[in-house]
Here is the input.
Amino acid sequence: MFENYTRYNFRDFYLVIPRETPDALFLERCCLGPQPGDNSVTPVVSSANTRIYRFEYQQAGYFHKTFLPRNWFEPVKEFFLGSRAERALRGDLLLQANGFAAAGIVVVGRKGPCNFIVSRAVPHPLKLRQYFQETSLLLKAPATLAQRQKIIRQLGRLIGKMHARGISHGDLRWGNILIDASDTAKFRFVFLDNERTVQYRHLPQRKRLKNLVQLNMILEPTISRTDRLRFFHAYLRENPLLTANRREWITRVLKKTNKRLTRRLRKRPWRT
Here is the structure.
C-alpha cells in the first residue's frame, strides 16, 4: 500500500514520505516544529492524546498532528500494527484507493515514543456539524433547505458506498467529516482521523451499526427526524439487501443512539 512512498531518515527522525520527496526546508518545518516568532502557526483544539497545529509553507496550508502515548499497551499495538501515524496513512490510502477523499498525508514521522503526520489543509473547509448548525437557522430560505437536503442525500449515498465496499471508518463523528465547498454544484466530503479505518471482505454488522450511530449522534433541531430518514433512505440505495429489514435497523440505530446520548448527557449535562 505504501508503494508511492519511501522511507527516509532526517535529523534522527524516521520518516515515510511520497517518492517525490519534499524539500529539506519543508521536512525541517515538519520535524522541528514551530519556532519562536513564527506567525504562520495556529494551534488547533485536540484531544489529550494528540497535539495539532496548522502552519503555512509556500502559500499552502498544512496540519501537523502529533500522537502521544495513550497507555502502556500502545507499544504492543505499534509492534503488531505500526504506529498511529502509520495507521493513519494506511487508512487514508485505503479510502483513496476506493474513491473516497482524505486530506492527503505528505509526511509520517517518528522519533522516540511520539509519532506524527503532516497532511494538506482542505480548501474551503467546513465541518459537517458546523454546516448544519449554521444552516438550521436559515431553513426558511428555499435555497438553503434544498441544499441541505442534497447534502444529506449525498452523504447517505457516500456512507452507503463505503459500507457496501466493506469499509468501516474508525471514528465517524461529525467533526471527522469535512465539506469542501469549493464546488457548490457537488460538495466533496473529506474524511479525517482514519487510523482505525479498515476494509473487510464482509462488513461486520456491529461495525455498520457503530458508524450509523456515530453519524446519528447529534441532537435536534440541528437535524430533524425527516433529515435522518432522508439520509437512511439514500444509504439503503447503496445497500439494498438491508431494505427488507429497514425498520429493524432504524430501531437498532435509534435505541443505541439514545443510550449513548443519555450516557453522554449524564457525564456532561452542560453540553448538547
User: Anything to note?
Assistant: The chain has a mean pLDDT of 87. Helices lie at 24-32, 74-81, 84-97, 128-135, 142-164, 205-216, 225-238, 246-267. The two ends are 40 Å apart (CA to CA).
